[in-house]
Write a structure and sequence with these properties.
The protein is built from eleven helices and ten strands. The chain is of the alpha/beta class. It has a six-stranded mixed beta sheet. The protein has a four-stranded parallel beta sheet with strand order 1-8-2-7, sandwiched between helices. β4 and β5 form a beta hairpin. The radius of gyration is 17 Å and the shape is globular.
């Protein structure tokens, strides 16, 4: 297995394709996707465009859908929810399809949607993602951070490093065996530096600071948790994620 890290969707090579791609948006799309599915959502359907989200979701009964739209950290007008994992409870989400569009995470998923196996990762689901990789044994894996509007983000890179470190611990393999590019090695180094201070790192991250200005401390606290959900969201049809 060779694991490569790309900090943003824009870094993803235009040529070639891996066996498996992992989309990461710790703050907050992939953390929210996992939380919604854990709460019993029927599926998550992702869109890069809010107008398309509204158009497609109109074909679903109102009681069977939730519209989640976020831009710049805030909820989009006309949507039921923004992009907080704390929005999702069994009472609100169970049995419903979440139609979702966010600033960065859903754009990342769109970039890798043609890969044979597409899953999402977050700090909350790190060990479940590691277990999935160990079971499936894909030959090549691209771990793609969502970043922020095309720029690097600490929180996505540290999550990528946490996943790779988990594979190293489980298999005893070295970077020579596993690293598909230099960014994979750098991401593990970041994780090892901050593994006991993940909430602090999210506070220092530029997007974490942006969310704190919007009074989203509890979201940062939730998203910084490691290995709390034993689930893996997987794309089962293009743009639609369910539990693996």
């Amino acid at each position: 297995m060779k694991l490569s890290v790309f900090h943003t969707p824009e870094e993803v090579p235009s040529e070639g394709s891996p066996d498996c791609a992992i989309a990461i948006d710790v703050l907050r799309a992939t953390s929210t996707i996992a939380a919604a599915l854990y709460a019993g959502a029927e599926a998550i359907q992702v869109f890069s465009n809010v107008d398309e989200l509204i158009r497609v979701s109109e074909h679903w009964p109102a009681e069977k859908r939730l519209r989640a739209g976020e831009r710049g950290g805030g909820k989009v007008e006309g949507c039921d929810l923004g992009n907080s994992p704390l929005d999702h409870t069994a009472e609100r989400s169970q049995g419903r399809r979440l139609f979702m569009s966010t600033t960065n995470g859903t754009r990342c998923l769109e970039r890798i949607r043609d890969v044979p196996t597409v899953i999402t990762g977050a700090l909350t689901t790190r060990q479940a993602v590691v277990d999935f990789l160990l079971k499936q044994q894909p030959e090549t894996v691209w771990i793609v951070g969502s970043g922020w509007e095309g720029s690097y983000s600490l929180e996505d890179t540290v999550c990528a490093g946490a996943i790779i470190h988990g594979v190293i611990v489980a298999t005893g393999q070295t970077f020579k065996d596993l690293a598909g590019n230099d960014a994979a090695i750098a991401s593990v180094s970041l994780y090892l530096q901050w593994q006991d201070q993940l909430l602090d790192l999210l506070h220092y991250a530029s997007h974490g600071q942006r969310l704190l200005r919007l009074d989203n401390f509890e979201d940062l606290k939730y998203c910084s948790q490691l290995d709390t959900l034993d689930i893996v969201p997987i794309q089962q049809e293009q743009g639609v994620l369910r539990l693996a």
